[in-house]
Amino acid sequence: SDGSIRLHQMTSEYPLVQWNDSTNGQPVIALQWALTRPAVFFVLDASSNIYIWDLLENDLLPVAKQTIPENVVTMALLGEPEKPDGLLGIALAKESGEIDIQCVKKKWALP
C-alpha cells in the first residue's frame, strides 16, 4: 500500500532486497514476473503507471515507466516461456471494461 516492493527468498521471512517508494508512494495494484525473461518484472500502481524492472540492467530503479491514460484495474502478462522467440504481451483491464493487449519490447522479453 505504500509503494514499496520486496524480493523474498522462500526460506526466509526477511526480504533479500527492498525498494522503498518505488511507485512514488502509490499503492501497488499488481506485480508479475516476465514469463520469458526471469530477471524482468512489471509493476502496476494505483495511478495506472506500469514500471518495468530489469534486475540485470539496473537493480536500484525501474528501467522504464509507462502511464496509461485510462484507469487500469489489473494486468496480466502473456507469453510462452518454452518458445525461444521471446514474444511477451501485457493485458490491461481498464475500469471501463475494455481489455488492452500490448506487445512488450524484445529487449525485455527475450530469454
Automatic annotation (TrEMBL):
Instruction: Give the GO terms filed under biological process for this record.
Output: intraciliary transport
In terms of InterPro entries, this protein maps to: DYNC2I1, WD40_repeat_dom_sf
Molecular function terms, GO-annotated: dynein heavy chain binding; dynein light chain binding
Q: Which GO terms describe its cellular component?
A: cilium; cytoplasmic dynein complex
Name-wise, this protein is WD repeat-containing protein 60
Natural source organism: Eurypyga helias
